[in-house]
Amino acid sequence: MGVGIRSLVFEEFAFQYFQRHQIMTSEMLPAFIESSNVERKQSLSEDQEKSQKPRLGEGFEPISKRQMKKLIKQKQWEEQRELRKQKRKEKRKRKQLERQCQLESNSDGNDRKRIRRDVVHSTLRLIIDCSFDSLMVLKDIKKLHKQIQRCYAENRRALHPVQFYLTSHGGQLKKNMDENDKGWVNWKDIYIKPEHYSEFIKKEDLIYLTSDSPNVLKELDESKAYVIGGLVDHNHHKGLTYKQASDHGIDHAQLPLGNFVKMNSRKVLAINHVFEIILEYLETRDWQEAFFTILPQRKGAVPTDKACEGSSHDKKSARVEDGLDSDSSEEENNRNELESPHEEEKQDKENSNESTVNSIPH
């Protein structure tokens, strides 16, 4: 009887516990599901971030010191952009103030305009013949381009600018100018033509300037058109411009360099040097002054009269040295002649002594 009561009490307690546990789980089930979903999302996002982070050795190389320096410089450049902008503004203001002060200090205040009014354009035509494009490599084409730029700048600054022509313009030269100097299309006071100079200038007006010509210029005729060969070849095509002028029946001549200048190097000049010498001559009408104003020091140029004096002085000094040498040789001969009798006497005495010693009986 007691055992039956105990079992009934236990079953009732167990039933009540089971009912209570089921109620709690049914109430807590939605919250539990939601929290588990949140945890799952967080774990997925962490996994994605880890997978997106670059790992060393997986498609990314370590940055070198040089690249790091470049990145640092780039960063500094970007940071200092505003500072540079401010400095440029200050520089512009300073230049404006300097110009204003200069204008106020001048009596008339328009010196630049007065200088430009003094410019007298020459009727002389100066042509750079660019028909040798195929004979030059790109390196020489670039040098030719720089020399043409120099000619253009000097002609713009000259007091007596010439009528500047650039003919047979095309090929490598035009391509190089298009790539590296796009502003050439806006150049002023220059005639740039793709045609050969012989197509629009009369043959009797042409004079080809070449160092191989036997003819020497005495003065410039401003009614003529002087042609400079646009060839930078380091003497690989010697005599080519002279041959071309002769073949076309064009007059040719060389600048009177040998009459005024003696150089250590060869007499072949750069295109811009010939161009500048002509501009200088038009201003001074003095070949020697023009040559020594333009020729670079590395050419070792000296006036021919000084060179002659130097050579005559060398000859005189050589003659004097020869005279001194002959005098010294004569003195040596005389000294030898004076010494020879004494030596003979000594030799005679020694011989006599030897003979007496030999004649003494033993």
UniProtKB/TrEMBL annotation:
Compositional bias ranges of the Basic and acidic residues kind: 40-58, 306-322, 332-352
Gene Ontology molecular function, alphabetical: tRNA (guanosine(9)-N1)-methyltransferase activity; tRNA binding
Gene Ontology biological process terms, A to Z: tRNA N1-guanine methylation
Region (Disordered): 40-60, 79-110, 302-362
Coiled coil: none
Keywords on record: Methyltransferase, S-adenosyl-L-methionine, Transferase
Domain SAM-dependent MTase TRM10-type: 111-302
One cellular component term from this protein's GO annotations in UniProt: nucleoplasm
Catalytic activity line of the entry: guanosine(9) in tRNA + S-adenosyl-L-methionine = N(1)-methylguanosine(9) in tRNA + S-adenosyl-L-homocysteine + H(+)
Protein name stated in the entry: tRNA methyltransferase 10 homolog A
Basic residues composition bias: residue spans: 84-96
Skewed-composition ranges (Polar residues): 353-362
UniProt xrefs under Gene3D superfamilies: 3.40.1280.30
Assembly mode: Interacts with tRNA.
Function: S-adenosyl-L-methionine-dependent guanine N(1)-methyltransferase that catalyzes the formation of N(1)-methylguanine at position 9 (m1G9) in tRNAs. Probably not able to catalyze formation of N(1)-methyladenine at position 9 (m1A9) in tRNAs.
EC assignment: 2.1.1.221
Catalytic residue list: D233 (proton acceptor)
